[in-house]
Write a structure and sequence with these properties.
alpha/beta; 12 helices; five-stranded parallel sheet; 2 domains; 9 strands; four-stranded parallel sheet; homotrimer; Rossmann fold
């Protein structure tokens, strides 16, 4: 694989199959070592800056925990401050300034393409922690790590992706990575929120088998794993459209009872009501384990970017 | 004592006399060691998450200083973020998620019972840093530590508690702990803000001597220590009621001059005008020392929860 | 020099020439060592508190990075929290409380004189990170460090200061320090925003040569270095006055082409449009290097205050 040392992490499509194998291997190694040790001080004296121009406490805390588990330091600009820090400043200037303080920048920004823009402005590595409707590659990597860990392999899987497939950058980045492996995908969404055609076409061009449906039960019964996503209110211009679709795709005990076999359930969280809390004790419910995996994967990426793995 | 290793800290009444003795001993040991050393790196590689759903910078900073003095790391969700992180998420889900990142959660939440709810949602220890009108046990422990340190003992004391005894969770938790020792208590408050009857009855049932009065001078002259509290504007539905009582219980130079003997003065801070700044140089004014003790007590609790003492 | 151990950093005029030489030497030493090592763990177990009563993420992150590069910890109160933490509390009380948690306080406050007030309230060192229209001494020190590094000396320099010289505390603190060396200064500003007369008179009294002008080109052609500042909208009561002057003093490629010789350009950042992005690739454009120098200078100050240099 190409070394990740000094590299930006901007887009799911920057990774080869070998890259993903290497990242998963390091993450798995860290997961094992953390069971035995209190932290892995590989990045002592190093500092990351977390710049969040929109709130995503979950992602920010995961990165900050990962860096501290590796013995490194964190400086952090919150979403509230971001408006005031700017005082009319361009993103490029902010990035260049923060580059003088930190060794790596983790950026969350509402504008698609902002992570690329940030990376172009600075010689230090930038990690895209979500850029608008664009990408969120570390989420995709932790999803792939979780799939591999839960199912033992990434090959010959059938996976259902459910919910808002139109606006969900999480699923867009995930299918990009899954396309490197021979998996079959069910896209389960209301018509209004179907996977964008260029993505579907691109996946088919890579030889992926794609089934588009509104029948979640059919898809689940054919799948090893179901990836649920929230139908995000804030993406809708027209709230009445949101009300129409929000209750359509829900996993609850009734749904599980009708399922023909055990299935693994992932969700990037937070959930609203698309997975009922009753489901949490189901052995296939892996969404909180998935959160924990995010720390191991981000530790792996950070260690590799700093050339420590 | 029952070990605190892996335990939640939720309520003042969870501690036995032996528990308190043990916590005070560890806190005192840490206080002495910190005078000789730069930090006590017992918790390297460990992480606490501070989740504050309402502002209490004082308590948050005290915990974060305690954890860092022990060599550990901190991830933090501020009160401003807490509204946005949720996106409709339940407290249980947020707690379960943050549990994947941190080893201990420190929670401040406006809803009584929320700390218990959080503890039920996760296998990792939860420390209640204030839950609405409920409890704030680490404050009570630092108060007891301060009383012990200032007066040399916790036995056979007479203590006056002054101010808003109705809504003050600080005093509620404190009297819970004091009831383990043979102390006599004066409850000094306006009629509107008297200690809730069930608490008073409960204390009497444990053999405590309780005197309820509106005469602060009488109480002070009979006491070794006076514990002042702020009459909290935000607890009043009717602001005219607040205006009526706020100036009623004030310690100033005039009050000290009339006192028959030296008294020790505590206050959980922040104060508004219930203790005049003139009093700060009085040798019995122990409220800033009390703040410092908070760090030692929280260090002791954290070290004990992690099984390092 | 007088040792900085345990000292407050409040005002540019507290430093002698020897002090500045000593600070610059330590900063330079740290800069070199950081190229070879991952951090300089001189302040392990020590904690600074950053208290920012108005937003200045840039300055805060620079201090927090400096402390962490030295192995120390940080507790932080953001500008948003500052309003709520107070609950009517005086600055002195907040400072005295935070003094119980941290070893050094870094304070940013909108009120002139607040840093002095804070220092009087506590025995621990206070660093003024900007107090209203008052001082910002660490900015002045990093500016002087940058001038020395870029030009190789602090003596016999001609320096132009451009922009809002009336309200700019940055330039006020800088000229204070420059007055210790034999430099000639051009004050370039619109009439409305001229350097306050008492400062100019004071500098002249110290033997400085001062030229006041509105002609930036004339000043630049006579100078080794030009220090640009933003014309700060928020300082203007009358916005129409702001609109009149804001575009008056701008460096762009056209300006550089007309210059007779290379010049070094500094700016405290953020900029709005007073330096065009085209200028960033000019070899004399030193304003991002200047940001980085801030970390080395703050590391030096912290280490010296803690008696570690």
């Amino acid at each position: 694989m190409a070394s990740l040392k000094g590299k930006d992490i901007l887009h799911g499509n920057q990774f080869s199959k070998k890259d993903i194998d290497a990242i998963l291997k390091v993450a798995s190694e860290f997961e094992k070592e953390l069971k035995k040790k209190d932290g892995l001080p590989l990045l002592k004296g190093k500092i990351i800056a977390t710049l969040f121009y929109e709130p995503s406490t979950r992602t920010r805390l995961s990165f900050e925990a990962a860096m501290q588990r590796l013995g490194g330091g964190v400086i952090s600009m919150g979403s509230v401050e971001s408006s005031s820090v700017a005082k009319g400043e361009t993103l490029a200037d902010t990035i260049r300034t923060v580059s003088q303080y930190a060794d790596v920048i983790v950026l969350r920004h509402p504008r698609t393409g902002s992570a690329r823009e940030a990376a172009d402005a600075t010689p230090i590595p930038v990690i895209n922690a979500g850029d608008g409707a664009g990408q969120h590659p570390t989420q995709a990597l932790l999803d792939v790590y979780t799939i591999h860990k839960e199912l033992g392999s990434l090959k010959n899987l059938t996976i259902s992706l459910v919910g808002d497939l139109k606006n969900g950058r999480t699923v867009h980045a995930l299918v990009e990575l899954l396309s490197l492996f021979q998996s079959k995908l069910y896209f389960v969404s209301p018509g209004l929120l179907r996977m964008p055609e260029e993505i579907t076409a691109n996946l088919k061009g890579k030889g992926m088998k794609i089934v588009e449906t509104e029948d979640m039960m059919e898809a689940a019964n054919a799948s090893h794993l179901i990836y649920m996503t929230r139908i995000q209110k804030e993406r809708f211009a027209d709230l009445s459209e949101y009300e129409k679709v929000k209750g359509s795709f829900i996993i609850d005990q009734t749904f599980l009872n009708k399922l023909k076999k055990k299935i693994t359930i992932l969700h990037p969280l937070p959930r609203v009501d698309e997975i009922h809390p009753d489901v949490d004790t189901y052995s296939g419910a892996a969404y909180f384990r998935q959160m924990r995996n995010g720390v191991f994967v981000r530790m792996a990426l950070l260690a590799m970017i700093f050339g420590k793995r």
